[in-house]
Design brief:
The chain contains one helix and 18 strands. It has one helix at about 20, and strands at about 1-5, 30, 35, 50, 55-60, 65-70, 75-85, 105-110, 115-120, 135-140, 145-150, 230, 240, 300-305, 315, 320-325, 325-330, 335-340. The strands form five sheets. A five-stranded antiparallel sheet has the order 8-7-14-17-16, with no helix packed on it. Strands 11-10-9-18-15 form a five-stranded antiparallel sheet, with no helix packed on it. The longest helix is centred in the N-terminal third of the chain and has 5 residues, at about 20.
Length: about 350
Amino acid sequence: MAITLDGTNGITSPAETVSGVVGTSATGALTLPNGTTAQRPTGSTGMVRMNTTTNIPEWYDAGSATWIAFNKTAPYTATYLVIAGGGGGANNSVGGGGGAGGFLTSTLSFALSTTYTVTVGGGGALGTTIGTNGTNSSVSGTGITTVTATGGGGGGGVNTGGAAGGSGGGSGQNTNAGSYPGGAGTSGQGTAGGTAPASNFSAGCGGGGATAAGNPAASGAGGAGGNGTASSITGTSVTYAGGGGGGNANSTAQASGGTGGGGAGGGTGTNGVAGTANTGGGGGGGSGANSRSAAAGGSGVVILSVPTANYTGTVTGSPTVTTSGANTILTFTASGSYTA
């Protein structure tokens, strides 16, 4: 015996209770209302139907206002870490260090069968008058507010302030007692770069990091980059988004980059050091002595942590896939996507 639902009039003949048909002794079947994805009715709690587009029955989840296939579960929570590319150091005389890329971490609700696009920002190139800003990193998709980490600000050259960014770039050497501030950081993402003292110091200032601002130059010494912030999203604590150190024209000593991939500044015998790849670290500033070069910022990274029970395995861009406890971790070092 079979009971038929026609999608309009409910249960049709023969007159029989549903429990009498679908109980343990039943030998018949229940035919669900059917239609394409485009023909889905306005959903309400308790509705079930056969989707003829996917050939999979589905149910309506009122909590998420979504039709969900029987072989899937309701939307789930994913944790993210989004780090933008770090700013480049300045190469004009004695330059400031680049600011770290913006640092953002929180959670998102991932809807089933929705594709989320991941963009990983590159590090900014070293510059002559001022370093180049890093580029943004982001996670975007239907139903969520796009998460965008701002690229780090470039370091400033001689008598030039640092650029604003996720974290700001450090200002360059101040030779005329002017006012050359470090670049501003983005609220909730990073800090400001160091500001040059109003005196003729032959040194650049450090770029800002996610946790600490860049340090100003002191007499004969470049400012250290600001420290970054640690995250354990992968299951191991890793520090990201350190600022680049300022350049130094009077000493072989190099101003240190901030923890989290910030590159050291150049000295009289050494070039600036690039920010570490996939940390968003700022690049070190250059030294005017012996034409020692500044360096580029480090590229960013996007990491998603999803419950392993919900992980679909549908990705592009070849992220590194690992597990930590009950979660699957996708580490994107280049742009790609994940379909929930």
